[in-house]
Amino acid sequence: MMTEKMMIRSLGSEPPLLADGRRAPDRREVSLRWLSGTFLTGITSSILMGVALFAALDGRQQLAIPAEAYASASADAHQDTSVTRGSRLIAPVIAAKPSDRAIMEVSTVVHDGEKEVVRRQPFSHVKMMLAANHVATEDYPDFDPLAIFSADEPQPAPQSRTGAIYGSDVESEVALKTVPFPTGKSNLNMAPGLSLDEVEENVRSNGSVLTDGNAQLAALYYVDPRRFSAEDNDVDLTAGLAARVLEQNMTVSAPESITPQTEEFADDILPVRQDTTIAKALSDSGYPQLQADGMSGYIAPLFGTDTLSKGDVLRIGIIQKGEQAKIIRASVYRGTRHLVTVALDDKGRFVAGSEPPMLDAIATAFEDNSFAPSAGQNLPRVYDGIYRAALSYGMTKDMTALIIKLLASNVDFQAQLKPTDYLEAFFSVADTNGQATEDSDLLYVNARFGDTLTRFYRFQDPEDGTIDYFDQDGKSIRQFLLRNPVPNGIFKSGFGMRRHPILGFARMHTGVDWAAPRGTAIIAAGNGTVEKAGWDSGGYGNQTIVRHANGYESSYNHQSAIAKGIVPGAKVRQGQVIGWVGTTGESTGPHLHYELIVNGTKVDPLRIRLPGGKSLQGDALAKFEDERKRIDTLLNNQPASDQVASK
């Protein structure tokens, strides 16, 4: 007899049931069916999972940049929970943001005869990262040094079209006229004074209405209403009145809320593609030289050397707030292996730190992708970067050319842009679209190129009505004298003793030679008066001497011809064409022999310390400082010395 347990054990060992004359299936036939079904199921599942994963990623299948990788790390990757994810200081791909441009309504004052007209005008405030991929809205002129330094730009109008920033805000337009206070006898007939009885009668009849809402007029303070009371229990006229003093011609506006600047953290990943020093790796990536040298001094003692090897990775942790950036951590990796880390402690000193959480960007630092180019790769020239950015932000070509001229003494326009180079400008526009016109005025520029900061303001001198641009100390941004009167020329020979090419013996070379093709324009080095213009029998050929201020003279020699109107006594301005390069006199080829003379002594034009341009003084300086402070307050500017870095 079969028990229940025996029946359970026997299940599965019985032969298959057959019906309708079918045969039992072969074991190999069963295996093929199972295998094909399993294979088809796997293929279908893989396709479905791939579609779902692609939809979830929504096209974001590229690798994250370092800042994004840091933000996606674990919560203990950075202890400061208030820090939000930010962009890199040295961003591999730099983007222009809508927040870099603001249109604001500002009250300005313009002198119109005896009146001062105050009106509201739209202004554009732009902050341009020049290394971003800007697209110029129109063609711009090719780089031409002569056009940059020459004085062929239109002279500004005697009166400013935009005017100066006004200290108060107006709703539409207000005309103000100031007349001197009469100090002598007036031509007006004076009315006789009121008697005491007449004063008391006026107070009795008008005292109860000398109020303005719940504000008591100041006139009531000089009269005691109880003096005119008929009975002791009369009501006090001053009861229940709240007194306040109102200044005339003053608008009280609600205080504007200032959005606090938040701190942002970013990791900058710098791959080392060849043996170099720590300081050079940082400076080549756009960090200021002083900052690069300082970080090298902190890392080298712990690292054992200040030299990085090919294949190393330098990781810089940065806290950024507004325009200021601060390095708080630096790490060195050999491949993906951590070697050393320094970090700021609570006392603001760099000490040895623990290894920070690993980032995927360190392992992929040397991969050739669009997110990790070498420093400065494919960036345009400074000249092209300024024009492309300015035109894309609504400036005109004339306004951009003016910026180029004003920066020419401090900026190398043919150098390659650095990722940290930026240009900030404040200019008048036609409407809220932010497009400048030929009537627009440039009021302010703040620029950074490498480690050089340049800031200047537009100001009209009330003494002579001239318009110029001055730094924060009231000194003209323009140079007193140019060192090279042939902007297209090539330096050939310097100041000092040399073997004379014609005479054949050593002789003092009292100037600088600039070689250029015959007929190349020569421009005046500075404003002045022509002292001599004609042939020199001492070997200089066609010679022009210009006398400048403070005992300075400039001499231009071997000219092929002297420009029309350049005669003794004529006034010339800086950049004006005064002649053309030639080879007259004792000369072996076309060039300009340029000399600079100070108080009768010839000096080296390339080495002497030249004075600055015009400096404001007295009342003009005080008015300039007032206008500068208004612009700084309007733009929420910080002193130029406080700017550490810009992203």
From TrEMBL:
* Record keyword Iron-sulfur present: no
Name the Pfam families on file: Peptidase_M23 (PF01551)
Q: Which residues cross the membrane?
A: 32-57
Write down the required cofactor(s). Answer: Zn(2+)
Q: Which domain of life is it from?
A: Bacteria
Give every M23ase beta-sheet core domain span. Answer: 507-605
Query: Could you confirm whether the keyword Hydrolase appears in this record?
Result: yes
Q: Which UniProt key words apply to this protein? A: Hydrolase, Membrane, Metal-binding, Metalloprotease, Protease, Transmembrane, Transmembrane helix, Zinc
Q: Which PANTHER family does the record cross-reference, listed alphabetically?
A: CELL DIVISION PROTEIN YTFB (PTHR21666:SF288), PEPTIDASE-RELATED (PTHR21666)
Q: What is this protein called?
A: M23 family metallopeptidase
Q: Can you name the source organism?
A: Rhizobium mesosinicum
